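Try this one yourself first.
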């Protein structure tokens, strides 16, 4: 008999229409949660909700860069399901523009228009999701779990994309501070830091199929014989969302096949 680790829990997953968010939405539903997928990809989001089953999954449009949309998303969830137990703040972008010769974002010629757009999603949007999820949990006296998607880039530097690296460092600061501030309410806050995963977003950025993308990055990890996939990240998020991690808070869980090992 399978064990449902999230039985009767209500979870929001931002960026849930594809990639890591989609894989996590399906896994959460398999473990008994009702999942609210939030995204700006309406057609894909509806398709994912339908594939999981509308009994266990809903879709709502939300651009996390707009705090009012984030607030409305959380309020809709509480009104329709009575509470919010889990927030997986996963929506993000790698670059604010399509990959071009002018989008590398080297510190010497950084484009601050693109910088501001990326930070609006990756930092401001992440903070808005934590803020409004936490408010809903505090109001309903829910001992909830909030998980934010960071990256191995949050623990390293890069030759380009300085704005992306900065944004993911910011996620760790958010998680560490929010975990201290929300601990007295019994709310846990953690982050997940994956290595490169061949998500649709990453494949589009690189202009390659998933298998090609995986081969490019496979040789950079220390743990041979495996490739980090969406499923591996979703499994880690499930751990942080469930009672299995009831004493884990303020932690950044790295899922990188040993990439960051010195």
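Now uncover the answer:
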């Amino acid at each position: 008999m399978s064990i449902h680790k999230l039985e009767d829990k209500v979870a929001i997953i931002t960026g849930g229409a594809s990639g890591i968010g989609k894989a996590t939405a399906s896994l959460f539903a398999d473990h008994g949660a009702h999942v609210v997928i939030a995204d700006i990809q309406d057609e894909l989001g509806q398709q994912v909700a339908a594939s999981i089953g509308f009994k266990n999954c809903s879709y709502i449009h939300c651009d996390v860069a707009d705090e009012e949309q984030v607030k409305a998303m959380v309020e809709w969830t509480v009104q329709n399901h009575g509470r919010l137990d889990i927030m997986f703040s996963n929506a993000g972008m790698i670059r604010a523009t399509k990959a071009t010769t002018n989008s590398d974002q080297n510190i010497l010629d950084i484009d601050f228009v693109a910088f501001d757009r990326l930070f609006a999603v990756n930092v401001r949007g992440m903070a808005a999701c934590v803020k409004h999820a936490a408010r809903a949990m505090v109001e309903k006296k829910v001992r909830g779990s909030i998980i934010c998607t960071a990256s191995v880039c949050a623990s390293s530097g890069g030759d380009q994309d300085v704005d992306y690296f900065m944004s993911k460092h910011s996620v760790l600061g958010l998680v560490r501070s929010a975990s201290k501030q929300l601990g007295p309410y019994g709310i846990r806050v953690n982050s997940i830091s994956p290595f490169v995963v061949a998500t649709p977003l990453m494949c589009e950025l690189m202009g390659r199929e998933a298998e090609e993308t995986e081969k490019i990055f496979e040789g950079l990890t220390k743990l041979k014989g495996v490739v980090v996939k969406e499923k591996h990240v979703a499994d880690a998020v499930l751990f942080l969302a469930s009672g299995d991690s009831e004493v884990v808070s303020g932690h950044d869980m790295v899922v990188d096949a040993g990439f960051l090992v010195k």
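Discussion: The chain has a mean pLDDT of 93. Strands lie at 10-14, 34-39, 57-61, 86-89, 145-149, 188-194, 252-255.
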